[in-house]
Amino acid sequence: MTTFDEDDELLAELAAIRPDQTDVFARSVHASIRRNLIGETGEPFRLGRFTVLEPLGGGGMGVVFVAYDPVLDRKIALKVLHNRGDRGRREVLREGRALARLKHPNVVAVFEVGELDDRVFVAMEYVDGHNLREWLRQPRTTAAILARLVEAGRGLAAAHAVELVHRDFKPENVVIDGNGHARVIDFGLARPIAELPEPAQSAAVAPATAASVHGGTPAYMAPERLAGAAGDHRSDQYSFCVTAWEALFGARPADARARVAQAQGRSVPGWLRKVLERGLSAAPGDRYPTTEALLAALRADPTRRRRVVAAVVVAGLAVAGWFGVRDYREAQTVASCEADGASMAGAWRPEARTKLRDGMLASGVAYAETAADKVVPYFVAQAEALTQARTEGCLNARVRGTWDEDTLARSVWCLEVRRLEFEALLDALSQPKATSVQAAVDAAAALSPTGPCLDASQLARLPPLPPDPERHQAVRRQLARAGALRTAGDYDEGLREAREALAAAEDLDWPALTADARRRVGMLLVEGGKYQEAEPMLEDAYFEAARAGALEVTANAAVDLAETVGYRQARYLDGLRWSRLAEVAAAAIEPEDRLSTRRSEIVSTRAKIHEGKGDYAEAQALLERVLAMDEKLLGPEHPHVANTLNNLANVHWATRAYAEARPLYERALAIHEKTLGSDHPHLATTLNNLANIHLATGSYDEGRAILERVVATEEKVLGPEHPDFAISLHNLASAYRLKGAYAEARVLYERTLAIREKVLGPEHPSVAQSLNSIAGILSRTGAYEEARVMHARALALREKALGPDHPDVASSLHNLAGVHRSMGAYGDAKPLFERALAIWEQAFGPEHVSLAAPLESLALVHVALGEYDRASPLAERALAVREKKLGPDHPDVAFSLVNLALVRASTGAYEEAEALYRRALAIDEAKLGPDHPEVAYTLIGLAEVALARDRPAEAVALAERSTGILAGREAPADKLADSRFVLARALVAALADKDRALALARQARDGLRAVNGKSKELAQVEAFLTQHEDRR
Amino acid sequence: MLPVLLMRTDIELLDAWCAGDNVAGDALIRRHFEAVCRFFRSKLGEDVEDLIQRTFQICTVRRKELQADGSFRGFLFGVARNLLLDHLRRLYRRGEHDDVHMYSLRDLGTTPSEAVARNEREVMIQEAMRRIPLEQRMLLELAHWERLTGREIAQALDIGENTVRSRLSRARAALREELERLGSKDSL
């Protein structure tokens, strides 16, 4: 065995400065360890005039013993503080003097403060008992807990009254003595208010730092102290209320929503909770102005009890159950992590919530109040998620040891981005704007999930963090603001912000940031319709991000390009290619089988592109996948799920799969009602779609009922002069029209017209739509000249607004031509029909169902002009097209059947004509009801055929029926005349009531005379009358 | 009942303590408390009660790692050293495999508790000790404050026994260099 004591002066000097461990610190630590490991206390030892009996524990500030003071002749608690240098000593001595001034039954007394063995000591009253936390381990009534809290509060108030602040109030610092009374201890950090240093200038000092600068336990610290301020009696009030809450509810108060949940689980009266909540206000000014006021509020319960404060008696039990030192330290770290977490949700204070609500209500939108209520849970959930994620990450790194500090730093950065997003959205939605109220819930539901910030493998794939994050912060904040403005619908402002952010980002020369800024500018350009400018910007963003290894931005840019290029600009192949690139980027971030909102978005965009392309089957399959993903990720009642349901239903609608579409719309509607409230405009959209399904399947009553509901809501919510209200009104009118209630329909159409002319101006295309509809009604009621004027006006409007080849122009041409035809001006009608047909063929292709109507009209014109051979193929084609798309039983198919029958009849093919008529009749009776005008028209046709086939009795029966139908309602005069005329002829041919026949014929003549362009028919009637009137 | 305490070896005391003999444990702690206390306090300051306590606790937990012919002191300081380095890593945010022992106390910025220096020379020596790498400082402490044998030092620092001497010379040289550097300045 060799030692290393060489004869060396240096080594001797080194040995000489070896520190002995004989001071009071070493001895107290030894005693503590003995007690913890061996279970025995040591021999008492002298410390100045005191006899140290046993240690009570230690902490960051110093060690505490039970000791005997011969001067006071009593047992005391002796606190010996760690050596903190001269300055620390001065402060502590000052504290001690302040404390010695305080004498109160609910405060543990300080007898003396001095110096011992080069350290400061504090000789305090020794209180036998348990601290509040231990005391609470037994079940206690609310009243008992409250009584103790009030006592402790009195102690605090007494300190405040002499301008002392406790600064570390918590359950461990309240002792319940042998008589059951609460005493506040460990005013070790108390400092007279007048001597407190200035609050810290910087905003957020990390809680651990705050604790070391001014002392205190972060979990109980008031927000202003966490932020670095020194605090005052109101900070003590906060800590008191946290303690009280924990004592009464069993857990410390978390955020607002969790507080409500906590409150509901315990038998704590509501008034008490409210008092504590005030004390827990984030802003000191919102709390009770004095501690006395708080106490008064606490004592002001409906069941007052008198409490007697006994004299202080020192008993002989040992203080038990201090935290083991290690647990205490870990608890401190945990508390510090929790404080970090809490700081994430700093923006979501009660004032912020009020401001949000006020801002939304100030927009003046009728459903704002509902929207304000509906949007809150999403913010609450995100605040909670941010807090939790931050805390978890900290625990992983600092307590569990599963993360290293670098991973934590990345996680914090990831969460910081989300925090900025949260604040920006909160701010944007708090501005009073109608567009943002409408978008509120969707936007709040779309806040980025925090999961990726807790996924170590994903975090590892983030690009490296910038060296100077503070400078980036400003740009990030601006980008978040731009994003929020975009989701709130304020595109101009958002674009401005984004452009500024891009300029600032370029200065910083950090490609990941610049790429992201560029992407946002690109997307805002897209929202403003500036696709030409947007595309190169987005492409640049994509490549820049890819080069910088910023995978998230790369994926996002690729998705944006897919949507813009593939969907909005209808360049399908390019769009699909971008979506594949997005997949590649996404796969580099997370495994392929992982569900995420990013994946969902990519598939969703692909579906949209396929839909636009007309690949409905593919679109449907993709949307079903998206639906499954979103239901799993977000829950089955999330706004996004409703949107996907709506989109899927639209695809079904496009393929006329009404039965599949309907339950999807209905489910989307249910979700919208839950998440948006029943007054939200989104509901009107879904309801309209649902109504259209009903109308398209012939369920006119159901469709009408839904539309009436929409109209009622929108009139209330949007006001009676809103264009969207006009749309719903128009749809309702159409429902009436389809049912045959022309008068009601006309009233509504005219109202729509008035709104549109006023609000959108008399040249707006939607005005043409209203004119068109009214004219249609006029036609049906026989007012052909008026109808013609209206159609002509609509046509002119549309040609001007939409250009000569637009399908809507073709509509007007067709309708105008129809009126001409009804008035007998076949020569005028024909070219218009031909032009309409040409436009439609061009727009939709030769097989499209929309061609049926113009084909038939043209066919009938040819019939009227005697060009039967030209009529026939057109009518056949029309029927075929309709049957193919609508199936054999649709009312429109009946219409085609009637037209073809007419053509057949005019060429003498009566048998065929009858078969066609009968088929049409069956459909009309079933789908429209036995009293619908269309039934009457078909009956007229059948009657004519019957007459032509020499079956007058049958003709009479048919014609009676048709006349009966038409006479009982507001039918076009000429149609009624037709009916009467055929009845007249049938009666004559049946050798029946001739007088009646003549009367009918005269009525028919009068009727025809009242209508323009019926000269041919009129001549026929006149001829008949002449023929039969003379033969008497 | 006061048992007669024979002069048992450290390992005998340890084994007895592990078997439940608290008196033996008490004696063992009494023998080595000052050294362990000094070890931590001279580097970290006063907030070390937990570390000291754990050092002793871990000795009982990891008793098996101590060979029959090994030295308790070497084992004890090995445990203490590991606790110290872990603590520093956590406190100063170093990764698991980082070489925190290569840093000096000055670099790490701790506030150690030291003896009161009686003159300027002692002040300088204390300062120089703060500036050499932790590993070298520990080597010097173990050799010159605690007077561990070469074998014990090797066990404590987990190095080869034959390297102890050469490392110690290097440590002394480093200390001398620091002193020279400090001496050439006007003030510390």
Automatic annotation (TrEMBL), chain A:
Localisation: Cytoplasm, Cytoskeleton
InterPro entries in the cross-refs: Kinase-like_dom_sf, Kinesin_light, Prot_kinase_dom, Protein_kinase_ATP_BS, Ser/Thr_kinase_AS, TPR-like_helical_dom_sf, TPR_rpt
Keyword Nucleotide-binding among UniProt keywords: yes
Record domain Protein kinase: where: 50-304
Listed SMART domains: TPR
Similarity field: Belongs to the kinesin light chain family.
Main localization, broad class: cytoplasm
Pfam families: Pkinase, TPR_12
This protein's name: Tetratricopeptide repeat protein
Gene3D superfamilies in the record: Phosphorylase Kinase, domain 1 (3.30.200.20), Tetratricopeptide repeat domain (1.25.40.10), Transferase(Phosphotransferase) domain 1 (1.10.510.10)
Binding residues for ATP: 79
Swiss-Prot/TrEMBL TPR repeat ranges: 894-927
Key words, A-Z: ATP-binding, Coiled coil, Cytoplasm, Cytoskeleton, Microtubule, Motor protein, Nucleotide-binding, Repeat, TPR repeat
